[in-house]
Specification:
mainly alpha, about 425 residues, globular
Length: about 425
Amino acid sequence: MASSAPRQGLAFVYVTTLFFIWGAVTSVNDVLIPAVKEIFTLTDTQGFLTQFAFFMAYFIVSLPAAAIDSRLGSARSIILALGIMVVGCLLMPVATYARSYSIVLVALFVIASGITLLQVAANPLSAVLGAPEKSHFRLVLSQAFNSLGTVIGPYLAAHTLLQGGLFDGGTPTEAKIVESLGRIDVAYYFIAAVIVLLAIFLFSVRDRIASAAPDLETSPGGIGAALGAKWALLGASAIFLYVGAEVSIGSTMVNFLEQPNILGIAAVEAGKLVSLYWLGAMIGRFLGSGLLTVVPAGRLLTFVAGAAALLCLIVSQIQGHPAATIAISIGLFNSIMFPVIFTLTLERSTAPAPATSGLLCMAIVGGALMPLVFAKVADMTASRSTAFLVPMACYILITLFAIAAGRARIVQKADPAVGSH
């Protein structure tokens, strides 16, 4: 076992780079929304269809992805996932050339399909690459680098997508529209190039990754088993609520901060501040990875989910700089939710790890559906502040899940890939 530790540690580093990449790509959507709203003259609900298209991929693709992961193994599944993401990125220039918002949505769906397969393969792989009792720590640490990607992504995207063209002010002209569309092309060509380089590198070390987690590579898929496992279903519900809440807040942040009764700032400045929302998540994950070595995971999840619910309630009732500051700070409390829900569920689910992972990733569809509920409430009440009651309800339910998980028995499995204590 000792001799395999360095090999597992190196494989863990390789896998963690994937978390960084899909965090950056996913968070670009938060800045893409105000860009496409301006270019295509969309309402809040129409603009949030970008998140619907992106996160619906998790619902449609996750269970097939679990089967692919079971058949190909994690290493080869990761290479395939990166290839799919590149195809999606290259569809974006097609969409801008055709000036078709529908093709933008298709491109986002394809990118998200690749990320779905990536998550199905990488999340349990991160959890299993080391001592079972450190599974919470490892996945939270990997997710911390995911958050680093979500900090860098919106900042760079704001400089690219929310400057020049239609964002220079004045009367919209054909030249301004062309410039704004061209900036979308630049952003996604750059993303595609980074993914290609990463795919080439990971292809060269695929055998090392596979050999570092042989038990996970050969574990059966058993997709149907996840649907019959109580804790797999409860964990999926919690993931649905968490991702829905986090994406709702991140997606509205630019337009929320732009409002005269909040900060009244330009879109590009608001876009940069979105990075602070994700910076809070990154800081929280690094801190959380340390706290999880001394605090039970269920107890820590109970605290952060309850705190996030309270902050959403406060945002719904106030205005100005305090509302902006509190809304951005919710990211800090989002930090450990996804990885802890994931590992708590893997520990308690009676289904095989690939099947449970597939169902949990399928539940990320909450990022498609809850933002539409958020946007509908915002449109109906003419208040994005009031709409913060939607994620508040999500966080309350996650708190109840955390309390129940803390009291539930960990399932001891013969399959070490599950990462049970």
